[in-house]
Each structure stands twice: as structure tokens, then as C-alpha cells.
Amino acid sequence: MPISPKSLTPPERSPAPIEHLYFHIPFCPKICPYCCFYVEEGSKNKSKAFLDALLSEVSRAAESTHIRPKTIYFGGGTPTALRIEQLEYLIGGLKSRLDLSMLLEWTTEANPATVREEKAALLKQLGVTRVSLGVQSWSDRCLQTLGRTHSAKQALSTYEILQAQDFNALNIDLMFSVPGQTLHEWEADLDTTIQLNPDHVSAYCLTYEEDTDFFKKLTGGQFVQNEEHDAALFESTMDRLSAGGYVQYEISNHARDGAISSHNLAYWEGRDFLGFGPSAFSTVGQVRKQNVSDTATYTIRMQTGASPVHTEETLSNETRLRERIAFGLRMSSGLEINLFAPWKEEAAHLLEIGLLESTGSRLRLTRRGRMLADLVASTFV
Ligand SMILES: C[S@@+](CC[C@H](N)C(=O)[O-])C[C@H]1O[C@@H](n2cnc3c(N)ncnc32)[C@H](O)[C@@H]1O
Ligand code: SF4
Description:
Layout: E1 18-25, E2 27-28, E3 40-41, H1 48-64, E4 67-76, H2 84-97, E5 105-110, H3 117-126, E6 130-136, H4 140-145, H5 152-164, E7 169-176, H6 183-196, E8 200-205, H7 213-219, H8 227-243, E9 247-250, E10 253-255, H9 262-268, E11 274-276, E12 281-284, E13 287-291, H10 295-303, E14 309-314, H11 317-328, E15 335-336, H12 344-352, E16 356-359, E17 362-365, H13 367-371, H14 373-380
Parallel strand pairs: 1-4, 1-11, 2-3, 4-5, 5-6, 6-7, 7-8
Antiparallel strand pairs: 8-10, 9-10, 12-13, 13-14, 15-17, 16-17
The structure holds S-adenosylmethionine (SAM) and iron/sulfur cluster.
């Protein structure tokens, strides 16, 4: 007989409510050759059983933890790969299990190939406030190189469909340093984006992640990385988006009129969050857990009353502080100087070589520091 979740560890409520929830929806129309997120192609596991598993993970968590979300984030994968009735079922199920009275922001990631009018209208009607659209590029040549399933024209039409729904905020995700992409092409991508006037733009430098086709092509010499070219594209990103009225509040994130992503800000500020679904991470206090990265296994574990957690570690205060600095420095507001107390010498050196600057009681990356952010972060982690 399956063990009921109630018979697991006796509930012990955490004092402060958890305010940030992440849901990993691991389905994609096609796996992109550069992507390292846990995702699966096709509909085999995109089932009611999976949605029930997600909902029961929420019910279980609510038994032992005080949850009162201010932000909810549907990521993946591609949450909009769920069918309309599946989104309705999932969101309806969450609404009946969670106290959403303090909710400020509900984001979903979306791939342009998976949203038409009816789905966009439903998301709005169900209470989603922010949509993050994975456009990546407005050049069909770059989209083809990236192995995307949509054209630039389709991305534009999806953007217009979303715009018509009047969400609180729309984000466009872009990627630069796509193999073969010139500075001129990237600037055209930025200009087209600015003309469309989204509230938020995320612009990521392509990362060659291990175990991806792109990584194999890089190590096989088919693709070449050029740091100077990457830096030129990044500089142009900062200049063009700033001239277009966007504030770079984090290395890859730019917002107009204060439309920052509260959910992502919570990560960079090192706040507690709960993640649901296969491969999702949670960090509460010193404890970090990651769920099993396999949808079928995750679903079965939830159905049988077993734990979905694959790894669990207790982080030391030092590790938490190191992470806090590495993530916090990504924000243009920087961090309180006293957090650097254990690494005074390192911070002084970074100030001396012009990668950090002081703004009274805080330290933050300089413009050059933003271009070498990973190097700066590696000093602390
Ligand atoms: C988890 S994906 C979800 C969005 C949606 N699945 C899509 O691709 O349209 C979030 C964003 O991460 C970025 N991304 C994914 N893999 C990346 C990589 N290897 N390097 C840089 N950015 C990447 C893309 O801009 C993507 O839109
Ligand atoms: S980039 Fe987006 S659509 Fe492509 S495989 Fe990754 S999560 Fe899926």
C-alpha cells in the first residue's frame, strides 16, 4: 500500500513564509542543441499524472512549510508546451492549494512556437502577470543555427498576441555570440527588440554547456569562441539598451520603467525558495535540495508517496555567504560592503584593478567588471 504523504516526517512549520516558488515544466517541442536544462521532447510524460504529481508535491510541502508566495515562476523547459486544458488544470489546482493573497508576480516562460491567441488569453485570465518569450534572435539564419522550431515572423506574431493581452510585463529573451553572428546582426536584433518596446529584455551570451551538441562542435573545432567578439557584443548590448531607455539591473537583464523581475531578484538576493517538478532546486535556510531529473521517475515517486528529492545538502554559513556575493554582485546595485569582511584583500585587489567600485556603503561591478563577472565571482566561490 502506498505510504500517504501525511505519514512521512512529522510536520514542522518554518517560521517565515516561503515567498518564491518555481515550477519546472520539462517539455519542449524540440531540444535545442545548446540547452542544458532538464527537458524532454514529445508528449509521453506530458500527462495528467505529471500534473497531479506536481500538485501533490505542493500539497506535501504546504503540510510542513508555511508558504505564502509573492512570486511564482513557471520555467523549464517550456511551460506553454502544456495544452490549454492542462494549464487550466495545473493553475486551478495551485489556486486551490496555495494562499495567493500576497502574490505580486506570476511569470511563465514561453516559446514562440507554443502560444496562440487562445492560450495567451487563458494565461491572462488565470492570473499570469508576466510572460518571458524566448525569441533568441530576429534573424532566421541565427534561429536556424540555434536549431529553433520557430521563425522570426512567428516570434513577432506571438509577441503581438501576448501584447494584445496586456500582461503587467512582457520579457524578450535574446542570445548573442551565436556562431557566425556579426556585431551588425546583433545590433539589428537589439534595435528590433527596442522598437517592439517590451518591458524587459534578457540578453544572454551563448554558453557552451557540457553534454550539448554545441559543446561537441566547439571542442571539435566546428565552432570557435572569440572573447573579444563576445565582449564587443556585450558592450553594444549595454549601450544600445541603455540608449533605448532600459536599465541594466543585472548583468543579463534590462528593465524599462522599473519592470524588474521580482522572482529573479529573489534568487540574486539569496532568498529562500521552493522548486517543484523534476530537476527543480529548493533552498530553505541552509538546506539545498534537488529533485530527481527524470519526469517518469518523479511522477512515480510522487504517486507512491516516495520523496522526489535526489540530492540534499546542508550548506555552511561560509558557502551561503560566498554564493550571496557571487550572485549579488550580478546586480547593478551591488552589495553591502560589510559582506566582504572575510575577503577584504580580494575585494581590495578587485577595487585596485578596476573590476569593483565603491558607492558609499556598497561595492558593485564596474562596467569592465560586468564584462568579467564570472572571473570576479570565481574569486569568492
Ligand atoms: C529555460 S529557457 C526557457 C525558454 C523557452 N524554453 C525557450 O527556449 O523559448 C530560458 C532562456 O535561457 C536562455 N538560454 C538557454 N540556454 C542557453 C545557453 N546555453 N546559453 C545562453 N542562454 C541560454 C535562452 O535565452 C532561453 O530563452
Ligand atoms: S532553450 Fe528552451 S525550448 Fe530549447 S530545449 Fe531549452 S528549454 Fe527547451
